[in-house]
Give the backbone structure.
Amino acid sequence: MKAFVTGSTGFIGSHLVRELLNDGHEARVLVRKGSNLSNIEGLGLETAFGDLRDYQGLLEALRGCEILYHAAAHYSFWDRDKKLIYGINVDGTRNILRAAGECGLKRIVYTSTVGCIGIPEDGTPGNEDTPLKPQDASNPYKHSKYLAELEAINFAADGLPVVIVNPSAPVGAMDIKPTPTGKVIVDFLNRKMPAYLDTGLNLIDVKDCARGHILAAEKGRTGERYILGNQNMALREILEALEEITGLPAPKFKIPYPIALAAGYVSHFVSDYITHSPPAVPLPGVRMAKRKMFFDSSKAVRELGLPQNPVKEALKEAVEWYKGNGYVLIKR
């Protein structure tokens, strides 16, 4: 069975294609010209060069495939070109889902994010039925992913066999950008984290997250969404786990939220009007950190059989990968 994968050069996507190949599937991947291919080098993948904004090109690229894994997104909390974020995340999703329908694909898995799921006011973990408040989709990335997920839901309602997965914060090897969670690890290793915010995340081994995509294609119900997560951890707990793994001391000072928020505003002002480069303190990230991003992944465990391997082992793998790939600048 041949699968078509978008986002294969990224963190989740590169693990996804490895899982597919290990299962004996063929994989064709959509790659933009000029992309960093280091995450998929040597895998022997069939490559289709193209762009999510090119509908006709997508039709040609999808021919002969049976399953689509749409894991690509423009993942950025700051970009000078806001239209690019919406063009790739919303228009691109609409294009590839429409093309998949025209090509008669048997199954489609759309990669959304837990950022499209709400967090209850009482502090309990959010689940697939927790609605996202409009004010919580305030930055272009999160808003674009919210709109893209609506596209997937609408296509499913019209009969397209789409299943939606909502990854939490994956950790592990090959996080080349790195993701915001990966940046926490890199900053910790480079001793650039003198303090921490009172926030939290749901972490999952990236390999389990990739496997969750395949399980969603095999067992997921059309139109349903599944949180691909594992362990809810306060940021302080994550840093303490990194301390145990590395022997480096975790920061002890907790930053008051108003100070972090002010730093985010200043950093974005400097980026927007002076440097025209990504801010040192992403304001959307600070805003999301106001509440612990805790989620309940029991539906995916129950219905899909989502693996729940120890998050600490994934953190170890991430640490070793960053150390071995030039991300750690400070030598102990």
Observations:
- The chain has a mean pLDDT of 89.
- The first strand starts at residue 2 and ends at 6.
- Residues 117 and 316 are 28 Å apart (CA to CA).
- DSSP finds eleven helices and twelve strands in the chain.
